[in-house]
Amino acid sequence: MNITEANITNNNGLLSKEEKEPVIICKDLTKKFGDFVAVDHITFEVNKGEIFGFLGANGAGKTTAMRMLSGLIYPTSGQASVAGFDVYHKQEKIKKNIGYMSQRFSLYDNLSPLENITFYGGVYGVPRKEIKERSRLLIEQLGLQNEANKLVASLPLGWKQKLAFSVAIFHEPKIVFLDEPTGGVDPITRRQFWDMIYEAASRGITIFVTTHYMDEAEYCNRITIMVDGKIEALDTPGNLKRIYNENSINDVFYKLARKATREE
Amino acid sequence: MNSLVLNNITKTFDKGSVLAVDNVSFSVKEGELFGLIGPDGAGKTTIFRILSTLMLPDKGNASVLGYDVVKDYKKIRNLVGYMPGRFSLYQDLSVKENLQFFATLFGKSIEKNYDIIKDIYEQIKPFSNRRAGKLSGGMKQKLALSCALIHKPKILFLDEPTTGVDVVSRFEFWEILKKLKSQGITILVSTAYMDEAMKCERIALIQKGKMLGLDTPQKIIESYPMKLYGAKADDIYSLLKDLRNYDQVESCYPFGEWLHVTIKNPNADGLEVLKTFPNSSTHQNLEVKIIEPGIEDNFIRLMNTSDNSRDNN
Lengths: 264, 313
Prior knowledge:
The complex is a heterodimer. Chain A is an alpha/beta fold. Chain A has helices at 5-11, 62-69, 91-97, 113-123, 128-142, 157-168, 187-202, 214-217, 237-243, 249-257, and strands spanning 22-33, 36-47, 51-56, 77-82, 85-86, 98-102, 175-179, 206-210, 222-227, 230-235. Chain A has a domain at 5-13 and 33-107 and 164-257: P-loop containing nucleotide triphosphate hydrolases (Rossmann fold). Chain A is built from ten helices and ten strands. The longest helix of chain A is centred in the last third of the chain and has 16 residues, at 187-202. The radius of gyration of chain A is 18 Å and the shape is globular. In chain A, 50% of the residues are buried. By secondary structure, chain B is an alpha/beta fold. Chain B has helices at 44-51, 73-79, 95-105, 110-121, 137-149, 167-182, 217-222, 236-245, 270-275, 295-305; strands at residues 2-13, 18-29, 33-37, 59-64, 67-68, 80-83, 155-158, 186-191, 202-207, 210-215, 229-232, 249-255, 258-263, 287-290. Chain B is elongated. The two termini of chain B are 42 Å apart.
């Protein structure tokens, strides 16, 4: 299939080429820890409403790159802006305009779903009244009415992850960073989770996601594959398969990441 | 001969309120590579703990190499190697010290048993003096496997050894398992990655403590009762929504590049149905084809038909 750039953007439900609006801009972004170059001159743009898959082997530099983009650490060199804010000077602004969710840290186990929503909504400055109204609606949408006041610790992992995602986008951030959001989750819930991702993206929230499930990489509008701190490939899943002459992203990934010389 | 036998094993927690393992029976043959396939919360870890004599079942019985897991626990502990899901080595000991420690526990020497871990350990040997807590995920995994093997167990229990591990390391890990199997070690391994099921000789699919199926991966795939179709179009999300809303479609799930679809009427020409559904003309580059089901298709199907599917619709 011959895909032109114009129909790549259209066919994925994104804005057309003229309206493309980059919300993450990265140019030669680099992070060194001593002599170790964790992230090595990475350059890319992510557009509004795009689902952007950020893949790489363990230790390729994904987490470091994400931490720079979410305003948690300063780059060593290069430029980047996230949601229109510079990563060197406007870290706090960035944090307010993004959501973040990881497999490991997402919600407070000792709070109920309702309390978690209220807490995170409060941290991100959502007005009290709005939190009250919308949290009830959210609990309903998630089908958590019976669990709304039980501790999060007692929920099955799949529900926790769906709730965590909803909490991460509760303040309607411009971008949400998802770090392996579906690890260990059952195949049906994993797909329900992706339904939520699609839905959020269709509302214009940009999704920046890492995953070890290569079938999920295929759901992204575009993906990057990082190897040893550098971006080795960046394109739509379809184009990558064509360029590397493989049948699946799994095989493309294997072809590229096998060359890696370093571990975490 | 069977190396492992479980008969009607049941285990509950919190005074019976949480049913972790529900009347599970299966056996693993000597030298077999057997997979427990299921998501988080399926009961995999509880099964490992019972088999490695760290936990007592509420009901049922189990034996490992002919020894009862309750009465003969001391015998069993010398014969099995157990790699828990969570990294359980001593973070403050070096790579070498951890290995030494586990060898000494079993009264073995690293030198004498080195042949069995050689292939794996050589890869982390350059870091012998590094503290285990400072290793990367892939290296921790290799050290944990070395420590589980250093006493030359007859059976290896591996609880989600590849969770959170990238595609390349996962591939390498399964290569290692194949080699261990060729040396005659029986392996019971669990995973939440359905694609890894294909690498096992036989698998048990489990969900919420219940067995959904048990057979060779090939037989499980062949047992898929419906014709399975693939569909894709330029806007896959809107195709997904349209097909789910179409009354002739029984199920529709995204699987990578394609949607996997089943049709309610078994006699209908599914390809035709999918080409001509009401909104089909609005989808650009609509493609449909017949698809071979995989383990994950079966798992989803079995999940939906099992009694415990209340939150899966």
